[in-house]
From TrEMBL:
GO terms for biological process: amino acid biosynthetic process; aromatic amino acid family biosynthetic process; chorismate biosynthetic process; quinate catabolic process. Keywords: Amino-acid biosynthesis, Aromatic amino acid biosynthesis, Lyase. It comes from Kribbella qitaiheensis. Pathway: Metabolic intermediate biosynthesis; chorismate biosynthesis; chorismate from D-erythrose 4-phosphate and phosphoenolpyruvate: step 3/7. It catalyses: 3-dehydroquinate = 3-dehydroshikimate + H2O. Gene3D superfamilies: Dehydroquinase, class II. GO terms for molecular function: 3-dehydroquinate dehydratase activity. This is 3-dehydroquinate dehydratase. PROSITE patterns: DEHYDROQUINASE_II. It is an enzyme of class 4 (lyase). Substrate binds at N80, H86, D93, I107, S108, R117.
Amino acid sequence: MTDLAGGRRVLVLNGPNLGRLGSREPDVYGAMTFADLAADCEKTGAELGLAVEVRQTDDESELVGWLHEAADTKTPVVLNPAAFTHYSYALRDACAQRTAPLIEIHISNPAAREEFRHTSVVAAVATGTIAGFGADSYRLALRALTTLAQ
Ligand code: DQA
């Protein structure tokens, strides 16, 4: 699906607590606010010819609904599932319905953090995972989509 400007539409979906970037544990997640991050994703998308729409929710059911929307419209997804990564089978089942590439991303490197973060229930149904590069994780995922989502 393309938007009116002709760019390939991409949803960048973010799970709980990511709306608090900037004030949330800046030593782990950096100083950028969620608004900064969203603007950066849109700018990167425009450079790559993608029409990027960034959303964030703390609500599992809303996130599942957005993944259904992406599946129904064959829209590629960049997904930071946040804490849902580690335990939400509902989110995993929604990701498994994808009809276009879906890249799991993390700002931090969960593998280098607490034990409970070492499990991702989403990873096996994602196209691939990018983690540990700060805001660049989003940029790298958008770039990867340009070759995946033809
Ligand atoms: C995160 C890592 C998760 O473990 C954590 O629960 C988050 C953010 C990241 O982007 O590094 O909320 O997904």
